[in-house]
Amino acid sequence: MAFINENYLKLKAGYLFPEIGRRVREFAAAYPDKDIIRMGIGDVTQPLTPTILKAFHDGVEELGNKNTFKGYGPEQGYDFLREAIALNDYQQRGVEISADEIFVSDGSKCDTGNIQEIFGDKNIIAICDPVYPVYADTTVMSGKTGECQSNGYFDNIVYMPCNEANGFIPELPVTRPDLIFLCFPNNPTGTVATRAILKTWVDYAIANKSIILYDAAYEAYITDDSIPHSIFEIEGARNVAIEFRSFSKTAGFTGTRCAFTVIPNELFAYDEQGNQVAVKPLWMRRHTTKFNGVSYPVQKAAAAIYSDEGKKEIKGLIRYYLENARLIRESLTEAGYTVFGGINAPYVWVKTKNNLTSWEFFDKLLNETNVVGTPGSGFGPSGEGYFRFSAFADRDKVIKAMERIKNISY
Amino acid sequence: MAFINENYLKLKAGYLFPEIGRRVREFAAAYPDKDIIRMGIGDVTQPLTPTILKAFHDGVEELGNKNTFKGYGPEQGYDFLREAIALNDYQQRGVEISADEIFVSDGSKCDTGNIQEIFGDKNIIAICDPVYPVYADTTVMSGKTGECQSNGYFDNIVYMPCNEANGFIPELPVTRPDLIFLCFPNNPTGTVATRAILKTWVDYAIANKSIILYDAAYEAYITDDSIPHSIFEIEGARNVAIEFRSFSKTAGFTGTRCAFTVIPNELFAYDEQGNQVAVKPLWMRRHTTKFNGVSYPVQKAAAAIYSDEGKKEIKGLIRYYLENARLIRESLTEAGYTVFGGINAPYVWVKTKNNLTSWEFFDKLLNETNVVGTPGSGFGPSGEGYFRFSAFADRDKVIKAMERIKNISY
């Protein structure tokens, strides 16, 4: 008799984005002539830039020619891409990361979920609240949690509330976790972590033999030179951290699919007898056994991001979205909202007025302005009363949306 | 303290293909002027065909244009691809499979490994011996096995020996498994399963409430009209089977990366109280939570396989490789070897002469003819004394390799 993985039954049925989709569809059906502006899902809208596009085409063309055809590539990614990453994202910033510590994949969503597999069920996981839902959901799937409580918290997960009082920076948890998910620049709050904050976390992880799972998917949006782009800029991090990076938001790759994970050679976890076991070979085994590499033309396109022209072009993309973020921040502030994030991040985190719940504000916004955003409570109970605007929209739509929001009646 | 998944420690260090690579590299270093012919790894060599290539380029071009740009797509794959698959691979063959039962992914290696996650640890898995190593390795990783024995068998896996005596078709196991991996046309033996054989397995699965995990990655190589291409051609299979398909060997996609998994709506597994739980929603949850869809241009390229021109072109590719298989079969038979497979499959399974072990034959072949093949024992103990030749090489190399093998001295 085939048995299911019962941990899946613990998951809540309603995922945030499908529920948003449902409400928007219903609204659109009821009011077909309304001009709906979508600033909900964090998906990019601007096309691939010319240099990246050309490399993508070139990669495709190679597959059509007998002499340049590529079959299976290395599961960890081609050297040309891993070396470009190591050089440009790390070594040129003075960070010690080598190509053999980099694993190219088809997405950070996959990586942050799959990484759970190489760690045992008895690990206690810490996650921020509010947070990207995938960390918690994949923790549940992997059997590391108990049941879901009425507030949406799962037993055996250490939740770290992030709120106005702590500046949306989690405090060191009292219950010591074994694996700690951190994401900076943060999704959904747009907060960044200073060097001093990250140092506190690295020291905490060293003291507790914990591992930090550091999601840096939005590092390209850091505008303040004093903010670290990588956890590995912090002394000691090579012993306690794994970093996840993605080209999705850096270069408009949400539909192209390419990302990477960095696991330093000095990172160790433990077996039940307390013996040290190197983590990189475990991930290598997982990656080579359950994955077969990223499409060759996609890797060519990703490598073009690191060319001189490519760098210039993606800076333009990021400037575009950051200018959207500035417009959102300033317009909402002007309209009397309390606003966070959106300076070193593509997300603006807004406090609702009149103590509206996140979903009440969602419905009000949809009905009165036809603008779609993301209810903060969908990211966890501490997000209640907040709302996320994504800066990944077209400029004219951002301007129009902000105009409409100014005129909301209370 | 971060704990590892100790199941990974049960895995054997040496994976088959790295060991082949090591021996070939050493040989090449010692004899740099030798013309080595590789027929080991089952990787295609012929370029993408024109229609597929054009669709791939068109998909890339869409990403470079503001009006046609695509961000995140549906995790399960775009409707245009899922509908083309359902229509062409199933409905037009009289098989009842709908687009909503199809999950597009980046590879069957990923899918056959990841599928384990939705099933509980207490399931007993059955696999053939010899077999594609990923089934066993991912079973071990998922915690469903005991330790590895000296013969390479893991405790708690039901092994089904496939040998000359049973025509390389597994017999129904005495210990009843919960999940049964089957692969036809078979890798590595090149055997196919008749309708009657598959019916026996479907009936056995129904009787035992087991689920068949059916790997049909090589179905495009079936030349005999009486052989089923899909497990779903068998009555009752919709209640007991999951099917894995890939474009890798069908259309030369090993470096392009696209595959799909079919889970019928009527497939159920059980919770520990014996209640039925539908399997498709579990996989949907896994697929949408831990995966973010296949690159858009890759899906466009895959859909072009189903156009009239695309169909003609990939038929040409498959004919090319099957002609290689015929040459290998006939040459080796002529040279006095006992040969299996290679008629409805791209693999030829050869018995060594003089009772050489698989690795002895590998070394002899490499040293005397500079031809690289795959030792059968690498696929499991029942593969000892056998050897796999892949037909995915260039024609001129196949001819040259067969000429050289004729002249091996014993």
Describe this structure in words.
The structure is a homodimer of 410-residue chains. The first copy, chain A, has helices at residues 7-10, 16-30, 50-63, 79-90, 108-114, 133-141, 195-208, 248-251, 279-290, 296-304, 308-334, 358-369, 395-406, and strands at residues 37-38, 102-105, 125-129, 157-161, 179-183, 211-215, 241-246, 259-262, 268-270, 276-278, 338-341, 347-351, 371-372, 374-375, 386-390. By secondary structure, the first copy, chain A, is of the alpha/beta class. Chain A folds into 2 domains: 12-46 and 310-406, Alpha-Beta Complex (Aspartate Aminotransferase, domain 1); 52-307, 3-Layer(aba) Sandwich (Aspartate Aminotransferase, domain 2), CATH 3.40.640.10. In chain A, helix 11 (308-334) runs parallel beside helix 13. The N and C termini of chain A lie far apart (58 Å).
